[in-house]
Amino acid sequence: xxxxxxxxxxxxxxxxxxxxxxxxxxxxxxxxxxxxxxxxxxxxxxxxxxxxxxxxxxxxxxxxxxxxxxxxxxxxxxxxxxxxxxxxxxxxxxxxxxxxxxxxxxxxxxxxxxxxxxxxxxxxxxxxxxxxxxxxxxxxxxxxxxxxxxxxxxxxxxxxxxxxxxxxxxxxxxxxxxxxxxxxxxxxxxxxxxxxxxxxxxxxxxxxxxxxxxxxxxxxxxxxxxxxxxxxxxxxxxxxxxxxxxxxxxxxxxxxx
Length: 257
Known about the structure:
Strand content: under 5%
Helix content: 55-70%
Order of helices and strands: HHHHHHHHHHHHHH
Shape: elongated
Radius of gyration: 21 Å
Number of helices: 14
Structural class: mainly alpha
Number of strands: 0
């Protein structure tokens, strides 16, 4: 079963980058007129992305809408404005543009991944899983590890811990330093009463990432099961000192773990 901790620590990763954003391998035949100033559309897409990353959503929206006016067939603009609408809570518009992006460019793995994140956040877990799997079909996709990690997090919310573990293992085969996958595998191993393996994953997590309240709670629970009271006290002290207002600190203070 997916625990509250796993659900909280499983944050899916959106991929919105300039490099490769305009990849359109497998693009469908456009049904709309392609504007003659497609280069300007590309420029406005990049400007919109930059403004969105800076948190200036209104200017970003203006630039991206302008890009679509200049070229309604640009998959990267549909992908980027989809992410923006998702952040703005305009979910119907977000899904429309994600669909446009992946229909126009089925091999556009960043858009497939982002659509998967959107669907997962809408609790449409199996649909999301298929988008992540579609993303990794492209052999040129450089973020397959992150798409697999996203798939693991998402199917874990069904909950399907067995399938989630399969995706996390595949993600770690590609990138052994994926902190979220390492933390999730530590938690899954703990739930399976495989404490030595859980500690191994947690040690690997510590080597690549900073402590979070979620990771510290796993460490405390694991140390208690392994009979290491000194470690329990040490991790509890760190949790209360660094994250005094966290739910995890409150749980430990009340002994509810």
